[in-house]
Amino acid sequence: MSKSEIKHVAIAGNIGAGKTTLSALLSKHYGWDVHYEDTSTNPYLSDFYNDMHRWSFNLQIYFLNSRYRQILEIRDGDRTVIQDRTIYEDAEIFAPNLHAMGLMSKRDFENYRDLFKLMVSQVKGPDLLIYLRSTVPTLVKHIQTRGRDYEGSMSLDYLKKLNERYESWISNYTEGKLLIIDVDNLDFKNKKEDFGSIVEQVDREIHGLF
Q1: Which residues sit opposite 129 in a β-bridge?
Q2: Which of 30, 44, 56, 165 is most buried (CB neighbours < 10 A)?
Q3: Which residues form the domain of 23?
Q4: What is the pTM of this model?
Q5: Does pLDDT of 204 surpass 80?
Q6: CA torsion sign, 64 to 4 to 180 to 159?
Q7: What is the Rg, in whole angstroms, of the alpha carbon atoms belonging to the chain?
Q8: Catalytic, out of 84, 90, 108, 127
Q9: Is 84 assigned a catalytic role?
Q10: What is the mean pLDDT of residues 73-92?
Q11: What CATH number is associated with residue 72?
Q12: Alpha-carbon dihedral of residues 159, 21, 190, 182, nearest 10 degrees?
């Protein structure tokens, strides 16, 4: 088996962890295609941040549909694809968090979970999942740097709750190969040696798949 037969690499991590940046860098380095999270054309995102209770279910269904389509395209295609965020994160982190915060009703959450379970029963997990572990101060710094208007109202408590759910999910992740990268002390966007260290780790995991 060769590297080219790896079909699906995915990057997971909280808001501001650096998923999109690392996806772009790894895509360029390995010659992989990249599927970004649909934030620019998502019709619900800005409404959601203005009124989370009203738009939480719509937003999560949109993301679920978008990521499920990405997985089908990856598996049907003949190219290796790196995916910015996974279908699991919506169902294991974001939707449960919204439900726990009282921002998604029990009825909507159960409906969402049933649909998620049906979808993931039809597909398999990524060949390699890269989890970017980050503390809240680092997340905040990254979020402020990119300056997206709709993210300006996010609270520290919200990010902290998401981080706790991420750690719980990752500690029980069994869908495939997992690489955890602590990003607090890395600047892989601007420092070649930091990105190089990540590439070395990814190479080891890829070779370990064979």
Answers
A1: 10, 178
A2: 56
A3: 3-208
A4: 0.89
A5: yes
A6: negative
A7: 17
A8: 84
A9: yes
A10: 93
A11: 3.40.50.300
A12: 50
